[in-house]
Amino acid sequence: MAAALGRAEARRAWVFVGPSLAGLAIFTLFPTAMALGISLFDWPVFGERTFRGLGNYAELLNDPIFRRVILNTCLFVVLYVPLNVVISLGLAVWLGPHIMGRQAFRVLFFIPVMTPMVANAMVWRLLFQPGGLLDTSSQSLFGVHAPNFLGSTAWAMPAIVAMSVWQGFGYNFLVFSAALDQVPHSQLESAQIDGASTFARFRYITLPMITPSIFFATTMTLITSFQVFAQPFILTQGGPGVATQTLVMYIYDQGWQFLNMGLASAAGWVLFVIIMGITAIQFLGQKKWVHYDA
Amino acid sequence: MTLSIRRMLVSTLTAVSLTAVAACGGGSEPAASDKADLTWQFWVSGTEDQTAWQKVADHAHTDHPGITVKLQGTSWDSYWSKIGTLLASGKAPCIIGMQSLRLTSYGNAMLPLDDLMAKYGVKAEDFDKPILDGLKSDGKQVAIPYDSGPMVVFYNRTLFKQAGLADPKPGWTMDEFRAAAKKLTTNNRYGIVVTPGDLGVTSFVLSATGAEPIKDGKLALTEPGFVQGFQQFTDLVRTDKVAPQVPAENTEFQSTQFTSGKAAMMIDGPWSVLSTKSQSKFDLGIAPIPAGPGGSKTFTAGSGFGISRSCKTPDAAFQAIASMTADQPLKELATAGRAYPSRPKVHDAWYQAADIQGARETLDFASANSIPLVTTKNWVKASDLLNRFGVQALNGEQTAEQVLKTVQDQAG
C-alpha cells in the first residue's frame, strides 16, 4: 500500500517536474553539450567543418588578445563587485528603517536597474565622449579638457565600471534593504541598552544576520559581472584597442562578427569553467562566514 | 544498367514537362518561375525606413503580378549576425541585402547572377562600373547594386565662408586641405573630425600615398606606403591637432561632431549627404578627397541585392531584384534621399533632391577617380580591428605603424 502510494506520488512528481526538466534539457544541457562539441571543430558558419581536437583551446591560450580579454574581465569583476556591494550595502544601511521617505529612495535607486541598459549606456556615452558634458563642463570650469574617458586605454575601464555601478547597485540595494528589515529590532535594542556602540551593533548583530543576503548578492553579482557585455559593447565596442573587451564580447565577436563558431564555443566553455570554479569556491567558503541560524 | 535507364527516362520526362510548362508560359500566362511569394532581408533603421523600402519591393509586384516581395527589416548592427546564421542554416530568404565591403565573407552562400542577368536582359553597362565590380565574388556578380558612391569630403560651407576660405575645388591638394583645417580650428571647434572607419582611412591613404589596403587578395596594411598614409591621417589628431580626439565607440561621433558644427569637415560617402544635410543648420558642401602626389583618388562602396543559394525560385527572385534596381525605384530612392543611385542615368534625380552647389562636379570627378574596395574574406575582422586599435593611433597612445602591425597580425 505504502509502496503503491509512493509510486503514485513519484509519478505525479515526474509530471510536475517534467516540463522544467524538458526545458532544462532542450535549452540548457543540449546547447551546452553542443557548444562543447563545436569547440572541438574548426566550424565556420559557411563552408567545411574540420575536426581539430583541442586546437581551438590552444589557439585561445596563444592569442594575446584572448589573454588580455580574460584580464579585462577579471579587472572588471575586481573593480565592480566590491564597489557594487559596498555602495548598495552602505546606502541600504544609511536608509535604515528610521529614515523619512525611504520608499521613495528605494524607487529612485531602482530606476536605473529597470531602464534599458542600452538607453543608459547611450546617455553615459554622451557624458563621457570628447566634447560631451563632462568635457565641456571641465573646459568652462577649469579651462582644460577632461580626459578622453572612452578613448583612452587608462580611462575606458574605470568609465565602464562607473556606469555599471550606477546602473546595477539598485538590485543589491533592494536585497540588502529587505534583509536589514528582517533584523530583529529587540536584539538591537537590548544591545543598545547594554551599551554597545552603533558600530558594534552593526558589526556584531546586523552584519552576521544579513550574511546569507550578502552571500547571495556577491555570488549573483560575480556571475553576472563575469558575463558583462552590454556596457562595453555600447560605450566602447571593446576599445580602444582591446582595453575593454570582455569575455562575452569576445565570444560574440568570434561567433557573430567573424563567423568562427568553433573558437567562440571554446571561449564560451572557458567562461563556463571560470564561473563554475569561482561559484564552487564561494559555496565552499560560505561555511566560514555565512550564518543561516538567525 | 536498369537504374541508369530509369534515370535517363526520368530526366527526359522532367525536361519534357518543364519545356511544356515553359511553352505555356510563353503566352499571356506568367511562367511558373514568375509566380512566387518572396521574402527579402534587408537593413532598415525604423518604421519609416521600412515603409520606404517596402515601396521599392512593391515594384516587383507591379512589374510581375505573380510575384510579391515582403521586406523583413533588421537594424544594421544585428543584420550581419542574423544574415550569417540564416545563410549558414540554409534557411535564408530568397533576396538578401549585401554591402560591397562584406560581400567576400558571404559570397559563398550566394548565387552567381551572371546567367540570370543575360537571361533577363539586365545590362552591366547601365550601372556604375566600380560598384558592379565591388559586388563581385571570385569574378562572378553576386548582387545587383542599388546605390554606390565614391568617398568624398563633406564640408561646412558656412564656416569656410566665415574663415575666408574659398570652396575646395576638384584637384585641391593635401596641403590646401591641411591649411584649411588649421584655419578652421579654433578654441571650441576643429577643422575636421576623423574616425578610423575603413572607408575613410583607406580613401585618405589611397589619395595621400597611392597605397591600397589589399594587394593580390591579401592584407597589405604594413607596406610602407600604407603606413605613411595612415600616419598622415592620424597626424590630423596627434600632431596637427586639427581634429578632436575620438572615443572608442565612434559610429555616430563623426556625424554628430560635424552636424553640430563642432568640426568643419568629415570624410563620408554620398549615401549620407541628404541625411547629413537635413540634420545640419549650415550650408553643406562636398569636395573630392584632397590630392596627394599621385592626384586625387578614392574608394567606392555601395550595396545591392543578391539571391541566397537556398532560394528555390531564383528566377522569380532575380526578376524581383531587376525590378527593384530599375530606373523608377532608384529614382524614388534618390528623391527621398535614401541612396545615391547605382545607375548614372538616374543621378539627376539625386542632384535635384540634394540641391548642393557643385555636387555634380565633385561626384563626377570623384567617381572617375575611384576604384572599388574589393575586400578579403577576413575584412570584417580587419576593419573591426582597425577601428578599435586605430583609436589608439589617433589619440596618440600608439604609433600608426604599431597599430597597423597589430591589425595585420591579428586579421592575417
Describe the model.
The complex is a heterodimer of chains A (294) and B (412). By secondary structure, chain A is an all-alpha fold. Chain A contains 13 helices and two strands; from the N terminus they run αββαααααααααααα. Chain A has helices at residues 2-38, 55-62, 64-94, 102-114, 117-128, 133-142, 153-182, 185-193, 198-209, 211-226, 230-235, 247-257, 261-289, and strands spanning 41-42, 50-51. A two-stranded antiparallel sheet of chain A has the order 1-2. In chain A, helix 8 (185-193) packs antiparallel against helix 9. Chain A is flat. The two termini of chain A are 41 Å apart. The relative contact order of chain A is 0.13. The model of chain A has no long low-confidence stretch (mean pLDDT 90). Chain B has 412 residues and is an alpha+beta fold. Chain B is 47% helix and 14% strand. Chain B is built from 18 helices and 15 strands. In chain B, the strands form five sheets. Chain B has a five-stranded mixed sheet. In chain B, helix 2 (47-63) runs antiparallel to helix 14. Chain B is globular and about 60 Å long. The model of chain B is unreliable at 1-32 (pLDDT under 50).
Bin the helical content of chain B: 40-55%
* Beta-strand proportion of chain A: under 5%
Question: Based on helices, strands and strand pairing, what is the structural class of chain B?
Answer: alpha+beta
The largest pleated sheet of chain A is described as: 2 strands, antiparallel
Proportion of residues in β-strands of chain B:
5-15%
Number of strands of chain A: 2
Over the alpha carbons, how many angstroms does the gyration radius of chain A reach? Answer: 24 Å
Largest interface: A-B, 35 and 34 residues
The chain-level mean pLDDT of chain A equals 90
| Average pLDDT taken over every residue of chain B | 89
Low-confidence stretches of chain A: none
Strand order of the largest sheet of chain B: 2-1-3-14-6
